[in-house]
Design goal:
Blueprint (H helix, E strand, L loop, with lengths): L2 E2 L2 E3 L2 E3 L2 E2 L5 H25 L43
Antiparallel strand pairs: 1-4, 2-3
């Protein structure tokens, strides 16, 4: 990868940077494509080597409709936490 030195181009200062050579983008695309194929191939081979047995899934443990033990008892009404009246009719 050639290094481009700092220079002036069309009146603007160009900072020093690296530039890929001719054909390097195509080579990198081919390299990444082969790497992706190897990655996918290794995952497919690893998952199929376990055979046909699968881990059992847990069954349902809940019962519907949900009923609470003391649902038939009356609950006390909530009490106000402030000592002054709140005018709810004004908005």
């Amino acid at each position: 990868m050639p290094k481009v030195r700092e220079h002036i181009r069309a009146g603007h200062k160009v900072r020093e940077h690296n530039r890929w050579g001719w054909g390097a983008h195509r080579e990198m695309a081919v390299f990444l494509g082969i790497g992706a194929l190897v990655f996918v191939g290794s995952n497919a081979a690893g998952s199929s080597s376990g055979g046909t047995t699968q881990n059992p899934r847990p069954g349902h443990t809940g019962q519907y409709p949900v009923k609470f033990q003391d649902s038939d008892q009356k609950r006390p009404l909530p009490k106000s936490t402030v000592s002054y009246p709140i005018p709810w009719d004004r908005g």
